[in-house]
Amino acid sequence: MWVRISEVAQFHYISDFLVGYRRHSGQQSLQRRQWEDGFTILKDACARHSYGLDIKRKRLAVLYYRFGQHDFRQRQFASAAKNFFLAGLLDPVRATKFLMTGSIKCSVS
Hints:
Number of strands: 0
Order of helices and strands: HHHHH
Distance between the termini: 31 Å
Number of helices: 5
Low-confidence stretches: none
């Protein structure tokens, strides 16, 4: 939905918190299926709009990073490592920043 809205409207950054976000174990965003759907959403968006290769590559990196987070939480460490590696290949600048700041948040509960 946000991709389609961004194609016809501009977004602006607001530093204030305007909404709350509750996390729980059954929510959709913690399930792998949401990130699998991201590939379909990206493909459809690219068919509607001529995004540059850089945008496609960075979006794919985010999807693989989210797969890595999910797999790590599920203790599927080999799959997580593969997905983090792919994310790093697709967006090495962002991956380097994550590694330098220790921002990878994948706590195993």
